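Example 5.3 — 2-amino-4-hydroxy-6-hydroxymethyldihydropteridine diphosphokinase
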Amino acid sequence: MTTAYLSLGANIGDPEGQLVSALRRLASAPGTSLAAVSGLYRTAPQGLTDQPDFLNCAARIETALDPYGLLALTQSIEADLGRVRTIRWGPRTIDIDILLHGQARLDGPGLTLPHPRMLERAFVLAPLLEVWRDGEEPAGISRTALEGRLSDLGDQPVVRIRDRQSLLRQIQGVE
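Solution (predicted structure tokens):
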């Protein structure tokens, strides 16, 4: 099994419900288990700013899938939840980005690892740090480097609106 880190976001329809549904699907996918989930964050859109705020979270998963198999799974979940790719950085029902997949470094068709813009986005880093396994350095990236980069992005406010235990209970259907 390989540890992978994902970033999830949504801002149209029922964003929280779509994030929970996506996380449930990831947790129940063959060869994949949900190891940790962050709290839920509200963030302002970047790039195209004339759209609703986003809800974001991160997940750490254990998977038997290779990077392209995981990409196929995440894109299938996005399609099932109504994702239509029309406008770059535009409104979306769900977005699932693979940030890291073990020690993989690749720049291939449709997938670059580590994710090329993850260190530029507070809405990725704040939730990612919640699920980061201490002592781990996938693709040579350390917790210290992520914390330093998040500190540099202070002009990108992120507001946690739900804690990780509450979100996990909702995913498990306890709440």
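Remark. The first strand starts at residue 2 and ends at 10.
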